[in-house]
Amino acid sequence: MSRVTRVLACAGLALSVGSTAVLAADDSKFALVPGGPHPYFSAWEQAGKDAARDFGLAAADYKVPQKWELSQQNQLLESLLSQGYNGFLIFPGDSVGTGSTAAELVANGAPVIAGAGCLQDPSDAAFCLGTDTGNSAYLGTKQLIGALGDSKRIVHFTGFLVDPNTQLRIDAVQRAADEAGAQVVQVIADIDAPEPAEEKINAYLAAHAGEVDGIITTAWVPAVVAANALRKIGDKRIKMVGIDHDEVVLQAIKDGFVTGTMLQNPYGQAYIGAFALDKLRSGCTVKQDAPLMANALTAKFIDSGTAFVGADGVDNYVDAMRAATKALFDTFEATYLTCQ
Amino acid sequence: MSPGLSRIVRTDWFGPFVIALAAIAIVAAFNPSFLSPLNIQVLLLAISINALIAFSQMSIIAIGQMNLSVGAIGGLVAISFAGMMEVWGFPAPVAATLALALGLVCGLLNGLVIAWTGISAFIITLASLSLYKGINLGITQAQPFYGVLDAVKAFGQTNVLGPIPWLAVPTAIVALLLWYMFNRLPVGRFILAVGGNQHAAELSGISVGFTVTVAHAISGLLAGLAGILLVARLQIGQPTIGDDWLILSFAAPVIGGAVLAGGHVSIPATLLGVVIVAIITQALVLFNIDPYLVQVVLGFLILGAVGLNRFREARLERPAGRI
Questions:
Q1: So what's the ipTM on this one?
Q2: A196, A229, A263: which is the final residue of a domain?
């Protein structure tokens, strides 16, 4: 984890060197708030520190609700507002339920950007900066199907049902499977926590390992647990495509138990999110003709990038993440913002 | 019905035992791989840890209270155990001992505050839940500890005999010790006496404050042990460990016939309650239940298991001539 953080920090530093002059806002105090504790967001903390340094912010602090509960996140956001935070990058605890809190924050002069997950339109979030989760799941499933033989029976392990991304992922995996004539034999959801993931994935593989040819995982913890489970039963017949960059998954790719993983870009989301919040506070607005994308939740979506990494690229996966961040950052202001 | 059989039928573990057997037979009939060695191992791994969680809550139910901080204590001990190995390089036995001591202290603090202030255990453990979870997040910053020693990982992944995992060994020892304590030792009888009738226990010379404190200390110790075993099983010190223990911790003792008002608990019945919940949880996966309906089905099945056991008890409580 620390090695990844250091490399990402260097990436952030490199980006800052090449950036155009920024309008420093030393009273900008931003909070980067995930839906709850989760390793996916670990890069947000370092990204916030880098952004605060690079853009002259008073702070860009990573603040974690104690549990994955909408009420806890809402209370934390309101508390942070009262403590003087004046801009928020939020992973919505609920795509609809977080909307009212976002409206409250914006009404108090604090711009809001949805990060890593989107708010349902209409919302007061300036935009949603995250992985195109549907596309990532679709591409990952395509990669998996490409690695399978004639038999294409897939099981899909995914995350919290309250996560606005989960249904998008389920639909995308099904679509990719339908297009390729593959069969999604089962979807096991709500397992983006270690204990249920361990229990359900192992139970499934104990009973059905012989009946599936491939595993697609579209959440962090199931990817880790499934990679460990395949290693434990020593089964390289079952192909698997995971998600994210946990050490366990990367090692399993190197050892041949996992075909590859779909990288997301949490560092870029927080770093560029903090940059954009500062710009919004400085009077910039989102361009009327900005090339925003649409997904099932919002028409204000910006893709923070995704990439497949297999055995041939696993040693240099940070390069893929760095490239995605740099590509987006270099053109972000010109592409999406209008500043006076 | 012979007297011997009648005595067995009247034991508090008989109902859960029959339900567990029926559940195994039904699931195995539809899915023969349910009884494969690998699946039995997977089931035993889940049962080993969940039983400790249930025993932790059962110790508090015995005194007629509840401990909402079971998961928070388990999570704090788990990340402390993994953290001591990763950050300070402690050997596993040292880290485990210190982490267990932390669980004991957390439980002890709960008990002392409850005993001294007389405030409801519900309130105190609700507050300590937040406190212990907050310390957990403060230490980890919500990031896992990955530096779990290979010996610990091996302990969590290997079997002692056939499909029986090593993790089942500490749980079996704890079950035996708890049975002995509640049935043979004064402190166990004191706990049940306080749970049955606190006023009568006090008049009998039992120190209620001391007994409550001991019960909470035992609860903290068992929650901590569950956290340590979970680190061995998951091979990672996840800060979210314990977050979803609460429902299970109550479900298993209640299915096992524990009286929430206190005074009566059963170790074998609670263990069977854990077995029933584990089978139900696994059956939902094996039968490909729609992910959006899993919680609904789980809730109905647990209610059904509790209802069946209560129905059996009610029948047994009727006059003998009507049985």
A1: 0.76
A2: A263
